[in-house]
Amino acid sequence: MSNLREKFASWEAVTLGAVCVFKGGSGFKESFQGTESGEHPFIKVSDLNLPGNEKYVLHSNNWVSAAELKLLKATLQPIGATVFAKVGAALKLNRRRVLVRPTVIDNNMMAAIPDETHLNREYLYYFLLGEDLGRFSQESAVPSINQGHLESIQIPLPPLAEQRKIAEILRTWDEAIETAEAELKAKQERKRWLMDKLLVGDWAVKKLDDLFELEGSGIDKVILQGEQVVPLVNYMDAYRKRILEPSDITAQTSVSPADLSRCKLQRGDIVLTPSSETPDDIAHSALIDFEPGDAVHSYHLFRLRARSNSAIIHDFRAFFLNHISVRKQFIRICSGTTRFTLTLPGVRGIKVSLPPAEHQKYAAAVLGDATSQESLASQRIETLRAQKRGLMQKLLTGEVRVAA
After folding, report:
1. pLDDT(35) > 70
2. Spatial distance between the Cα atoms of 296 and 302, rounded to a whole number of angstroms
3. What is the pLDDT of residues 205-240, one digit of tens each?
4. 264 - beta bridge partners?
5. Are 85 and 105 in contact (CB under 8 A)?
6. Are residues 103 and 230 in the same domain?
7. Where do runs of H (alpha helix) occur along 233-354?
8. Under 8 Å CB-to-CB from 75, ≥6 apart: which residues?
9. What CATH number corresponds to the domain at position 85?
10. Which domain holds residue 23?
11. Which DSSP letter does residue 202 get?
């Protein structure tokens, strides 16, 4: 945005340091962790991800009393400050939040406090939301930014009344996104309720080994000269969706004839994530719901292929492994410390209740419709976010002007 002054002569372009004060955070003492009786929130970078903290910091895992605040020699950041990570991988995740009460931030964070005689606090939030602060740390071993970096950033500065109007317009998109997210949450809760009703019953109990052949050795995401290049179903494909279609497969790898024969996918196969950083996030599964050609699965996935006598219908395979009663078994048998993993023998021993074919068809139809509704709600959120990004680009550069 360095040339904005020339491009939009009616706007002033100034450095953030001229209209904004940046303050770092305070050291956090673990002895205070879990305290909920304090007067002031003490937020860490991880608190930016708490549910309900999408734009405003409404929740914190840690609180400090007035006495602890004095002991820490900590500074309370004011209401309306925009806070964000200043070090580590979180710096590049573009998470910016606005404080709604005086708050202590830890020393891995920074607060931007506007001079409100020149800079509207919400306009500052949206401006920082669109800034790639990680660009300052590209040559650093550990990503980090400092006060000098931040103060040097140029901000196009329309009159205060126009700043407020821009913030008001962008706020309507935030509200639309919030409404869409609430709708998605309601659809997700309805689907969980349906799964409880449709996937639990007094039916025959089978081990997965009775129903499926399991393959745990997939293909690395490396393209070697002289090998055949093929589509690759990877970890995040199985993690994000329960039913995979051709448009979901975007990665590629190369294979030898032997690897292609061993790892080639078929319609009706299930791919399952056998590892995660936390036990409760393990064993997400997805159904290959198309003819995959020469697509193969990643070595980060297990593949389950129905045995000829398994009596488990195609559409039902998308759902039965994701019910909580089955997932608890996966959680119970995984092992690890920093990363938790499943073994093929352990997965083979997982037990599932298999309803009659007619119930499978009914359950798959109902849950398939619920999944489609969930997907449409999710797509609406992504559409609104894309619209907001485009609008921010136009409004915050002056490409589109608004009447104050």
Report:
1. no
2. 11
3. 999 999 999 998 889 989 999 999 999 999 999 998
4. 296
5. no
6. no
7. 235-240, 257-263, 324-333, 344-348
8. 23, 26, 104
9. 3.90.220.20
10. 4-157
11. S
